[in-house]
Structure formats: C-alpha cells, structure tokens
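Could you help me review a protein record that somebody else here produced? What it holds is a sequence and that sequence's fold in token form. I have pasted the whole thing underneath without changing anything:
=====
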Amino acid sequence: MSDAILHFANELMSSWWIYLALWGFAALDGFFPAIPSETLVVTAGVFAAASGEPNLVAVIVVAAIGAFIGDHVSYALGRGAGGRLLDRVKPGTKRHAAVRWARRSLEERGGLVLVVARYVPGGRTAVTLTMGSVRYPLRRFTPFAGVAAASWSVYCTLVGYIGGKAFEDNPLKGVVLGIGLALTMTLTVEVVRHHVKKRRDSQPQLEPDRQLVDAAEH
C-alpha cells in the first residue's frame, strides 16, 4: 500500500502539474482557508530533497506568488464588502475570535500583523479581509503581503526539505516529519499569541478603542 502511495506521489511531484497545484492551492488558501496549502508545499519540499523533483527554488517561487495573489483577492473581497463579510461571522466561533484578533492587532501593529498572521490558523484571511474592509492603503498592503508570502513559502518549503533530507530513503516519513515541524511552529505561535493576549487583557484599559481607519492612515 505504501509503495503504491509513494509511486503515485513520485509521479505527481515529477509532473509540471505540481507547480500549477502549488500556485492554485496557495492562492485559494488566501481567501478560502479550508485549502491545505501548507501540507502541499511541505510535501513538495520533502520530495525536492529526496528525489530532486520538483525543483526547490521553483516550489518556493510558485507558492509565494500564489499566496501573494490570494492575499490580494481576500483584501479586494474585504474592500468590496465594506466589512459586511466580517460582521456576519457568528460570535463565539473560532472565526469570530480570529476576526477580533485581526482588528485589534491591526490597530496596534498595522501592516506588520499581516506577516505574523501567515502563521496563525485562519489569521491570514481574517487580517486581509479586515485590512480591505477598513480601506488600509493598497500601496502599503502590497509590500507587507509580499514579505508575508515569501517568508511563508520559504519556511514551508525548507521545513519539508529538512524532513526529506532526514528520510531520503522514505519520503513518506519525511512528509510526516515536515508536517509535524510545521504544526509545532503553528502551535508555538498560538501559545505565544495566547500568552500576550492574556497579559493584555489583565491590564486596565487606558483609553477607548481607536478607529481602525485612523490606525490604517498612520
């Protein structure tokens, strides 16, 4: 069974279709977070290390371009909807919590939050939608989106590459290791974010919430 899976995976990874899939998954994940783009990028990195196909640099570039485009699509959706998409999110859900975090973080850190959000489950979509809905300047959004997409692509690909080098004779184990490393990083970010949020919530509010539009303009 594992031999058949490995053979299929090798066939897929050696085909030019893998680059189209990487681009498409990364782009869709920008505004439809149910798409497992990280898993595909990590897997491509594993096989790049184990067999030399797909090309490592091409994986990084294609995934980054897809993520960059996806973030801009999400930004455009938020800008066009004028915040209505976010307002319809059901309170008490994980998505609602992500939106609240995005709005608060955008007030505090501006565009830098987009780079951090790349590593937060559901965070990237919440942030890009929020930045669009508050009319965050596109000329400032684009550079941050570029840094976020590039760093995310390099990270996911190299995590897979490490897994592939560790198990060159068994890429499937490399995939498991690579995904495990990626999940560990995600968990670490979540723990740090939760700790920071807990400390902030325990402090008295010194001033009322600022308007997001004002934060976007400064």
